[in-house]
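Quick one, T. Sequence first:
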Amino acid sequence: MDSERKEKFNPVKIAIGAFIVLVVVVAVVAVVSLVSGNGMVTESEQFAKGYEDGDNSEEKKQTLSVLNRMRELFKKNIRAQVTISPAINKTYPNYFVKDNYVTSTNRSYGFKIEGISKDLLSNFGKDIDKYINQIGLNGFHEYASVPNAQNVNFANGDESVVCAVPKMASSDFTVSCASVKWYDQEERNLTEAIISVLPKANQATFYRASKNDIIDSEISGYQRIEASAMDGVALFYRVSGGNWVYFKTIQGLPDCSEFNKDVLKKSFYGMECNVTGTGHTSKVGA
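Structure tokens:
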């Protein structure tokens, strides 16, 4: 009986048992911390199939490969409970050529970071610079800097894919990437043509023009472009399909008196303008 009692209260076995319990408790705490603590980043259930859209091109594969690298950087560095979901054609990175004009696309693949609560939003915002710095240290480079832009523009090593990363935290934070081959070559050519005739003083801003911006004047043989610019709308004109000529950049309606040459009146014929000192508007050539 005594031997049974001694065996039952064996201090060595009690110590071993306590150690095992402690290990189990630590393991459970570790798992709980992993699942519910900061640093928890889950991917939505549909993520694997989120980019299925019938396109099996090499451009798409390359874009998704770059996007996945970008996503892994965020997953590694985010310190908040969030969900990452696929995003198609939600935001579009700009593609810059020669640093002073931009072209657009209507295709992109990205990921959206969801579930950033209000109390975590400010901390997430403080960390964005760190994320951006990490991107720059992992095979990407910032290839164009746009004053007051909402995104930071990155390209992969050979600049075959461009990506846009928001500068500001939001509850709808989306990173997007696109192949440069998806950018409109016709738009690039047209924008390059108008950039080439700009005065040097105007070449520090950013421009975009597409064929939809070309307006046929009411006078046959004359055309104009109202191109998007960072500081307003840039006006260009041409005669009989010749080279484009820069006129001026406007914010709001131009003054009618500025169209004081025959070629300007014919190129911008019918365009609305302000009549100086009257508070009224008219049309060029009226």
